What does this fold into?
Amino acid sequence: MSSRRGRRQLQFEPRGWQREFRAILRAAISALRGTGLPLHAQYRSAVREHCDTENILFYNLGTSAFAAATAAGVHFERGYVVPACPVDLCSEPLHYHRYETRSDTNGLFHLWRETSQLARFDCLLPRLSADTKPATVWLAMHQASGLVPASAVWRGEFALQLKLRVPEIHASPVTVVKPLLDGVIAAFCAYEGTRLMIAAERVAAQLGLDAQRAAELLTDQSRALLGYYELVVPRATSVQWQPPDDRCMACDLRLEIGTPAGKLDGELLAVTE
It folds into this structure.
């Protein structure tokens, strides 16, 4: 792995050696069987550049590989210390993936320590699927109970502890991780940018809202615990949500299937290494 390409994190559309690596990793993960425990996943790298941990661990591999191992939920963390490689390499290892099903024995998170609870919340959710938009979760969060007004903006790393209760789920649970996280994290931010009304009109169209109401929710500062961002960026005829999920170092998502209605309970936690 001495080439520049060989030192990159796993890409969404891998080429060369990364395609072979992805195939081997997918096969190993597909062989994991549900044990009634959540799948624990770690991505570690000393490269401190912007990254979406859930993309690297799940979406860049293909979510279908996780169907059998994630029936009880999924737990993932981002770390900066890479363990020693079990085989000799021609240079230092820069990227590390780990997947396993196991019980929690040493606290909620393993690479991070919770320092305070920033917010606690619960909200009702509509039916979730692989096609769920972050906007749907974001709107549900704005209608949630238990959200506290922001007394100060938290600029550091954070984690989420979530419990999702749904009547049924029609795909691998990891297919809803991205819209779920983007929607939840975005609900703790306020929009800051020059294209507010364009973004608001497109979000409103997805949700069946008035555009002015969507703009009011996007710029709501009362819950902006995580700061101010251009949360929604117009792309062609749709939008791309850009919450600060690179600051989300860990997430514990537990899944309970068979409840009468969809509900999400959660905590937003400040963490430190």
Notes: The helical segments are 17-30, 53-59, 134-142, 177-186, 196-207, 211-218. Residues 134 and 179 are 4 Å apart (CA to CA).
